[in-house]
Amino acid sequence: MRTAIIGGGIAGLAAAYELEKARAGGAAVEYTLFEARERLGGSLASEIVNGAVLERGPDSFITEKPAAAELCRELGLGAELTPSNDADRKTYVVVKNRLVPLPDGLMFLVPTKLIPTALTRLFSTKTKIRMALELLHPPRPSGQDESVAALVERHFGAEAVDRLADPLLSGIYGGDATQLSARTVLPRLVEMEAKYGSLTRGMLAAHREMRAKMAARKQGSAGGGGQAAARPAARGIFTTLRGGMQQLVDALEARLEPAWVRRSTPVNRLERVDGGWQVTSGSSDTGSRVEHYDSIIMASPAWAVGALLSGVDTVLSEALTGIPYSSSITINLMYDEMQLGSLPDGFGFLVPASEQRSMLACTFVHRKFLGRTPQGKAVLRAFLGGMNNESLLTEPDEVLVQTVRRELTEILGAGTIGRDAQPEHAQVSRWRRAMAQYAVGHQDRMKLIHARVAALPGLRLAGNAYDGIGIPDCIRLGRQAARELAQSSRTASQQVS
Hints:
By secondary structure, the protein is α+β, with helices and mostly antiparallel strands. The protein folds into 3 domains: 2-41 and 250-323 and 438-496, 3-Layer(bba) Sandwich (FAD/NAD(P)-binding domain), CATH 3.50.50; 46-88 and 339-436, Protoporphyrinogen oxidase, mitochondrial, domain 2 (Polyamine Oxidase, Chain A, domain 2, Alpha-Beta Complex), CATH 3.90.660; 101-211, protoporphyrinogen ix oxidase, domain 3 (Orthogonal Bundle), CATH 1.10.3110.10. The chain is built from 16 helices and 22 strands. It has helices at 10-24, 67-74, 114-119, 125-133, 148-156, 158-173, 182-185, 187-196, 199-222, 246-255, 302-308, 314-321, 365-368, 397-412, 442-454, 471-496; strands at 2-6, 30-34, 46-49, 52-55, 61-62, 81-83, 91-95, 98-101, 106-107, 110-111, 238-241, 261-262, 267-273, 276-283, 287-293, 295-298, 325-336, 348-350, 359-364, 377-385, 425-436, 459-461. It has a 7-stranded mixed β-sheet. The protein has a 5-stranded parallel β-sheet with strand order 12-2-1-16-22, covered by helices on one side. The chain is globular and about 70 Å long.
């Protein structure tokens, strides 16, 4: 079986690694990994500057989803896994140029503790009363899909959308709560509303159930061997690699057959032919090349996949190109702490759209992950862009850096970061149309996409546009696609023999 993998981001690399494993295990597998850019890894890119790890793209992955950590361990990077410093985790929301901490007890946008919610300055009295009355909501069977904003506003009011849902989801998706699908982005809340009515009651019930399961496991492990079981190591909500996410990219690349990896080689055309696929690749510098493959794993953004499949299946092509994407900018500013006043406790802050600022969020990187920044240095990582600020991508680097520095001074105060405080290093990264948006109706779109893909033998999709946007999701989908193709190849071989 010859497989073309189109796209050398983390999904494509994970797929190539899985096929390489199958080949090492004796499977009759060959693959070619096509990447239009010079480097592999997509948005995963790290640099070490003056001893500090600076991430240009994602700085970590969610620990709860196992695919990324499992792959790191397979690659010999287990000792490099570093949890977030959750003992000092605290996040603020900017409200009229003031940092207001998120109240204790928030679970998936749902307030579950009465006193912290009553005392927070994040919400007005009117919103707090509405949150209390939310406990009386009757069950509401889910009908049509709706936006996250509509779901949250129905339960907690418009202020909760503005100051909580929108900034939190903007930090994750770079999107807009009025456009994101509640069924896809917050399926647990949709299920809770249907069963309990009140999201607060549903979340408290889920929390009780989780605590009961943990207690049962603890009792079971303690009663088996006469000695108390060792406590599991503390896990952070997020996990990164000590030397940066680039370590994962480099480790994957090192496992692949070098002759089968083609950088700076865009795929320009795909055609269905008897027994497989015809792939046309190359550039004006390298010349055009036409090859035959039995199967294809499309690991590029959905808009690029849709363009390539336009001559194969117009319905599938339109469904893929219809998936919206947002762009983003990350700016790392490295300071000598002697130039700064005392930063607020915690990991950083979120900026609601109503504040009318360029920044969406800022992370105090040296606090979030310990041991990746030299003593006496501070790294502040700002996020800009999103669905509503695409125009920022055309601004020069120096303008973007000055904008972030000005807004940091206005938000944190001149006593913390004065206008004269000069960063030792500034790094600007632009990610155009990189983050898929799960808009209202995404699940129906995916049903159509899956049906059309199933009718095209040998075609698989992987990436952040389909079933999860994070690094673990991309890894899971890439490896799953490769396993399915390798298994179908084995089955075909057995039938022939």
